[in-house]
Amino acid sequence: MIIDPRTGSHPAVRFEHHPAVRGEIYRLNERDYRDSIIEETVRRTMKDMSASDPRMLLEETLYLERVRVKKSRASWLTAPYLASRNDRDRQFLSSIQSGMRQSVGLEDHRELLRSFSDHFATEICGHFEPAVYDLAIRMVPWMFSWLLNAASVKRFMPFGMSESLQTRLRVVGEVDQLQKLSRKGTILLVPTHLSNIDSLLVGYVIHLMSLPPFCYGAGLNLFSNAALSFSLSRLGAYTVDRQKSSLLYKTALKNYSTSILKRGIHSIFFPAGGRVRSGAIESHLKLGLLGTALQAQLERYQEGLPNPEIYIVPMVMSYPFVFEASSLIEDYLEASGKHRFMPNDGGEDVPLIKTLRFFWKLFATRSEMWVRIGRPLDVFGNFVDEDGHSIGPNGTRIDPRRLLMTEGEIKAVPQRDREYTGMLGQKISDRYHAENIVLSSHLVAYSLFSALRKNYPSLDLFRFLRLSRAQRAITKERFYEEAEACFKMVKHAADQGRLFLSTSLQCGDVRIWVEDGIRQLGLFHDAKVVRMDEGAVSTDDMNLLYYYRNRLTGYGFGCEISGETDEKGFLV
Q: What CATH number should be reported for the domain whose range is 137-314+372-415?
């Protein structure tokens, strides 16, 4: 449902439903259409690689692919899809190596390189089967509703009454504008990325908003599950293998993205590249795929295609707890601190079990997930109005075509276009922070972390995270004093339009929202992220406290509270 997070009110407006729109993605079910995308991807890739020595490029790609396949741990027992793909890759790599032994001329090397490009493009290219999609959009709400109502039994709901996922999934922001723009051009949705459940929820939100299905990149690791592999490979998902590091593969991936955007297929990118390990709002985005939006729009202008504009729509998701938080923050700290970081002992639950447990806890305790649709942007980072017109910094309408003109014609200029994409990436990061919805769990973690940090200002982060249990405790009075100060700080930021407050923070009563935040943080994790005993407040897990605290980094709050910070707003 749509809610105003500033006031907590439920305005009369609801999702604006429109007649079902099939969308260009349905054509991925046509063999000729898919073949044309693959052919275009190969043609673009060969053009991009034309200045490189084909033999050296082949040798580099072949070497990196052999190393990747050798290191792969996929087996037919645990991941049959990945194991099968690795077997096909081995056979293909052997044929390329054999061809390189026999070839002597430049054209031979180019043909082998073309074969390699075709191999990558075919692997990347997604399918779409309407029957599977229709089944999915029926099954996912049913599955959530069943789990939601099963978890709600203990509240003894009256006979015949039931709850739906929409009562827990709060969708706010520029919903109406997104719906309108989806009929005026091509949408590139760019969500934040916290958890593996993000893709599932984004897809469900798209369905709720009566939008056609979107194309999206799915990490190859998701295909290790037979059911997910079957579904993803038929729902428009294209595979992204983050283990492939060759220039040829990365170029083919970008060119595939350009090809589908040029055809008007709505798409989803996670600009962070993967889940954010630190728990913070993304500050540094990967611009490779993001730059394909500008390239696709430029080519749509050149070819005179209808509705040529591509609209970039930020989406920010906020959860009261994240089921992978423990492993994510350990990954972040290990990468950042290396020898200074001391990992915790203990294993992980099976991902499926953790996912079911996450939703069970969420539904059984009346917790809420928030999704905020941000203000749409053009490919340069300018805001766009409801009619899809770009609005410049001075508030006047601008013509995007003029920004792409050189010597009187629209054409690509690599250095200029990279600068435009960098501007877009920075604007998306800024909008992530501005559209962020602060939950009580975030603010409680931030308050305790800040109070503890003031007691040990001289310790670096990694020594600070190793405080003893006795050192992690402060009095209730001291905690509430810090919590009140932190609330005033984020309330001031919300009044300035720098972020939003969830309904749980609207009351302003520190004891009420602190109680709610502690309860939310204690729902899922075995260790108490924030523990309130009779006379003290403490934490059982400093790493988790840091993870949830980090949701409020990047606003400059640390400078006001906890001493020196680095350029990301993290404590040092």
A: 3.40.1130
The predicted pLDDT at position 162 comes to 42
Spans of all domains in the chain:
24-124, 137-314+372-415, 437-561
Q: CA 221 to CA 200: how far, in whole Å?
A: 15
Nearest Cα to 261, choosing from 491, 37, 35? 37
Burial class (CB in 10 A: 0-12, 13-18, 19+), 572: exposed
The pTM of the full predicted model, rounded to 2 decimals, is 0.88
Residue with tokens 């639950």: 349
Task: Take residue 310 and report the two structure tokens written for it.
Answer: 């591509």
The full DSSP string for 350-412 is PHHHHHHHHHHHHHHTT--EEEEE---B-TTS-EE-TT--EE-TTS-EE-HHHHTEETTEE--
Handedness of CA 472, 477, 478, 481 (dihedral sign): positive
According to DSSP, residue 77 is labeled T
Output DSSP code: residue 168. Answer: T
Strands 405-406 and 409-410, by their bridges, are antiparallel
Percent of the chain residues topping a pLDDT of 70: 82
Model pLDDT, residue 344 = 59
Alpha-carbon separation of residue 569 from 11, 81, 200, 429 (angstroms):
36, 42, 30, 14
What pairing do the DSSP bridges indicate for beta strands 267-268 and 215-219? parallel
Residue corresponding to tokens 């953790």: 354
* Span 557-563, average pLDDT: 53
Model confidence pLDDT, tens digit, residues 487-528: 999 999 999 999 999 999 988 799 999 999 999 998 878 899
Q: Distance between CA 532 and CA 347 in Å, rounded?
A: 27
CATH 1.10.3470 fits 437-561, yes or no: no
pLDDT digits (tens, 9 = 90+) for 96-137: 999 988 876 888 899 999 999 999 999 999 889 888 888 877
Mean per-residue pLDDT for 232-248? 87
CA gap 188, 378 in Å, rounded: 10
β-sheet bridge partners, residue 30: none
Give 348's contacts (C-beta < 8 A, 6+ positions apart): 326, 327, 354
Q: How far is CA 553 from the centre of its chain?
A: 18
